Amino acid sequence: MAKKQFKAESKRLLEMMINSIYSQKEVFLRELISNASDAIDKIYYKALTDDSLTFEKDSYYIKVAADKDNRTLTITDTGIGMTKEELENNLGVIAKSGSLSFKKENEIKDGHDIIGQFGVGFYAAFMVADVVTVISKALGSDEAYKWESTGADGYTIEQAEKETVGTEITLKIKENTEEEQYDEFLEEYRLKSIIKKYSDFIRYPIKMDVKGQRPKEGSENELEEYEEEQTINSMVPIWRKNKNELTDEDYENFYKEKHYGFDKPLKHIHISVDGTIRYNAILYIPEKMPFDYYSKEYEKGLELYSNGVLIMNKCADLLPDYFSFVKGMVDSEDLSLNISREILQHDRQLKLIAKNINKKIKSELKSLLKNEREKYEEFYKSFGRQLKYGVYSDFGTNKEVLQDLLMFYSSKEKKMVTLDEYVSRMPEDQKFIYYAAGESIERIDKLPQTELVADKGYEILYFTEDIDEFAIKMIMNYKEKEFKSVSSGDLGIDADENQDKADEVKNENKELFDYMKNVLSDKVKDVRVSKRLKNHPVCLTADGEVTIEMEKILNAMPDNQNVKAEKVLEINANHEVFQSLQSAFENDKEKLDLYTKLLYNQALLIEGLPIQDPVEFTNDMCKVMV
Ligand code: ADP
């Protein structure tokens, strides 16, 4: 029989999996049991919603059986089974979504990342087995098929015999090596403990034939050997358990089991509500961003169960977009099994649950911020941007919910601070919340526009992400304090001698400024003497609502409308350069033209804006030198 090849991508993954240095090889069993449980869920769900199928609870189970003599471990389930095509499609391809290309190979250091990220659960079997054989009979099919593979070199499929619907997976356990004891996966006690550890809450019985000794009947001290079938797992789903019976490890295991993420969750939220609406939920705030989080591929949503039966993998209606990073599940007795996607959207119960969950997530994040600052900052690094999008979208409807969760880098504290922290330490004479936008903290540190505000001793928030300024425009003011860009026309800083002097200079040099404005024509709205510059000769600022940073961002968008900031070229009258301008104005207009263009282009460079004609600019520089 001809061997079929795995798809190229799958093959590479498979090789990594087989040679994986991943230490926790035991998770292969968790993966196979989880698949078996899903398969039973599917048939269970069908039986509940389809009258032609009868469902007897006792006839659904998972069985784990080890055969030491033959070195095989068999996992049998009475689930929905797979057709020939399904065997081929489901087990012949890994990373169906092509997600591997997202991740560079060197980022995948061990099998750990792969399991979970790509749903390659089944392939974990190759970490402990040389040969994997799957015999399956699908519901509604008369034929059974056998899929077999020895690993990366491909697989075979042929017809097989199997009486009942379901799947039987047999692993030929690897021989021991110097580093690895594969034998342990044939030991009853070891298998029992792995099942207990990872799969205790699986809803269906996981059975094993267990050998033991017991007192012989009718005898005081004689023992007899026995073998009996035992159910190893407690079958109580974790979300139905009491919070104080559960450890952090239990929650972490559930997170991994469910493939919610490949990281260690930052926080879990266990909710049990028993009021007008009854539901249990386990939610997680991940630590790391999923690789596709900020892409179109990412789908938000929680698993939705109706009385213990999974009815939807990703119920998007349960989470607002700004909390789309939350993972987890909700189980409610009050939801109908037959509920369709369309009905769900209008379901009153579901809306209530969603509202409830939303509140809970918010309060948990707040308490994380308050009590576990480091963890919160870790979280914010990954998902802060999403919160800011949340503030910005829907015309700012959600700003009240979210503004207290925002953080920005502070010029004074040199770390992330909240708006509340900023406002609460504002000096009395400070009217505004000042911010500076730029590419990076280092860039903003050097912005000449910050000079006056910084000199006044005011704290400045650094906006380094595209969304920041837009989000802030939505908030407008926080605790009655308005936001103000350090590059905005009027900084709202009280007139002092600096100011008076500026006005004086302005009046005395009106013609000079008018002349310079003419040279630059419509490139700028105005040329002015600066009230904010201390050491730098020039900078650009903006009058009106649109700042220069916003112009940059808007124009980088695909459907840009060519929005322009009203740019103002500000000149530092205290700088030596100013004297050169004055004397050029008196004696050599051609020189003044040259200086004006140079200063303008320098201001553009400082802002990180492109120079229209770089060649002209360098030629101009040379003119000054010679
Ligand atoms: P995942 O479970 O994350 O989808 P797997 O590689 O573990 O990835 O499984 C691939 C697919 O193979 C499953 O989605 C399921 O459709 C099918 N499958 C695996 N094991 C079984 C099983 N025991 N019974 C029925 N179908 C199964």
From TrEMBL:
InterPro entries named in the record: HATPase_C_sf, Heat_shock_protein_90_CS, HSP90_C, Hsp90_fam, Hsp90_N, Ribosomal_Su5_D2-typ_SF
CDD domains, alphabetized = HATPase_Hsp90-like (cd16927)
Subcellular localization is given as:
Cytoplasm
Q: Where is this region: A?
A: 1-341
Q: Quick one: where's region C?
A: 553-626
User: Which one Pfam family would you cite for this protein?
Assistant: HATPase_c_3
Q: Which residues form a coiled coil?
A: none
Q: What are the UniProt keywords, alphabetically?
A: ATP-binding, Chaperone, Cytoplasm, Nucleotide-binding, Stress response
- Would I find Acyltransferase among this entry's keywords? no
Assembly information from the UniProt record: Homodimer.
NCBIfam families in the record, alphabetically?
Answer: PRK05218.1
PANTHER family from the UniProt entry? HEAT SHOCK PROTEIN 90 FAMILY MEMBER (PTHR11528)
Role description: Molecular chaperone. Has ATPase activity.
Protein name in UniProt: Chaperone protein HtpG
Query: Can you name the source organism?
Result: Metabacillus niabensis
Taxonomy, top ranks, is: Bacteria, Bacillati, Bacillota, Bacilli, Bacillales
